[in-house]
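Translate sequence into structure tokens.
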Amino acid sequence: MSSVSPSAPAPQPPAGHSEPTTVPQVIIQQQASALGRYGKFLLILLVLAGLSLIGLISSYQSYFSPPGGPQERYHSLSKEATEKIAIVTIAGTIMEGEGFVKKQLDRIRDDENVVAIVLRIDSPGGTVTGSDYLYHHIRELCAERELPLVVSMGSMCASGGYYIAMAVGDAENVLFAEPTTWTGSIGVVIPHYDLSGLLAELRVKDDSIASHKYKLMGSPTRVLDPAERAEERKLFQELVDISFAGFKEIVRGGRPQLRADDEALDAVATGQIFTAAQAVQNGLVDKIGFIEAAIERAAELAGRQTDEVRCIKYSKPPASLSMLLGRPAAPTGLWNADLGTLLDLTAPRAYYLCY
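Result follows.
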């Protein structure tokens, strides 16, 4: 029978010495980044590369176009051709100031390779002054550079838009309207609203002081008796009639068939909107066709084959780096408008505008 010897006692530390304490160690393994050990540095480099790319794109776009100006874009015809047909776009309501349309014209003036212009108009018109300003500068550019001009009408080319289209002058087959275009609206309007009744209900009274009663002509808050209102309307009607006579002279300059026929001109100068087919029938438009037909006609007038020229258009310059980085936008809306804007809204102004 086997016996089990008692286990020997564990050795004791010498007197005066304490037993060493074992400190547990916790090892935390950091989770690896998706981009590895140098992830943060790679992200920084990626951001810097993106900003550099934006700068390179802007530089590339500005290689053939001046910085901050209209940027040239290929539209159609030959990509290899040096000579160009330039499309100038007029879109939206026409207001005062040079604006993007004038910048397009200046771009063409400095480009010797442009041999013809296609004026693409999609506008209901605008102010008398703004419409006449663009008409004048288009005529001046075409005369200075001896450039043929062809008009391509978009969905609407009315009133001030039609006024500008008359820059084509005496040339034949140069006004093209799309099948669904609305055009015409030859006339003048001075919008005016009488708010005096509303102010009376609010117990607000216009107590303006002026050097003469005519100085307050067109005020929307002034209370007038019937005789005064009739007198004011007569004065405004005279202004409208003068501007209207000027509009008809412009139409005579751009529509030779209506120049010597006052009856035919009066029949279409009623402010009426015409369809493309009606406009052709009444001599306001030469042909129904899309912008491609207008481009072909421009090449023909320039004495070029369509495979000998490149058709280009202009776009607004790309957003600056400060805008991309979040520059705050200017406040918009009536409540944020400054005093000058609010006063401008109350000033009487003549429009070549389709309502």
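Note: The chain has twelve helices and eleven strands.
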